[in-house]
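User: Please fill in residues for this 162-position structure.
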């Protein structure tokens, strides 16, 4: 739309300059009217057709299920991270789960680390808390297996019940 406005402005200036250079002042009003009408007609067409297309003029089609399919594929990828390595879990799931736990429990990890850990053990138990605990990140060289989908489901279920 900005390009259309710029082109219209430049067209008006060009038409006025041509009318002055050819010493035909009696056509300046008509030329200015045409120069203004052309961009306005283009703007009207743009607004009425809703042509929110790409730069090459082909309209972008947004299918109703495209957003849902994109969300589903992203979710499936995140679930696969839980079945991957410990490093993937530490990089992708642990910060998300620890942040959600911190918000839902109201226990600030920085304010009182002991209360944060105690609340985590109470909610998740001794088996699941190490997978949520933000302080339990594996050393850089360790690349063991991740906890898997069942552990992720149980952690999410317990967070949801909170």
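Assistant: Residues filled in for all 162 positions:
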């Amino acid at each position: 739309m900005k390009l259309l406005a710029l082109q219209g402005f430049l067209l008006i200036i060009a038409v006025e300059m041509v009318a002055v250079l050819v010493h035909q002042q009696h056509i300046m009003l008509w030329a200015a009217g045409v120069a203004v009408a052309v961009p306005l007609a283009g703007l009207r067409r743009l607004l009425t057709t809703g042509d929110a297309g790409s730069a090459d003029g082909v309209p972008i089609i947004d299918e109703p299920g495209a957003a849902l399919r994109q969300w589903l594929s992203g979710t499936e990828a995140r679930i696969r991270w839980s079945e991957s390595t410990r490093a993937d879990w530490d990089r992708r799931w642990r910060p998300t789960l620890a942040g959600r736990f911190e918000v839902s429990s109201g226990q600030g990890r920085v304010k009182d680390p002991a209360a944060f850990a105690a609340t985590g053990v109470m909610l998740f138990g001794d088996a699941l808390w190490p997978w949520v605990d933000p302080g339990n990140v594996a050393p850089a060289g360790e690349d063991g297996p991740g906890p898997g989908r069942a552990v992720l489901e149980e952690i999410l279920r317990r967070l949801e019940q909170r």
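For context: Residues 28-49 form the longest helix (22 residues).
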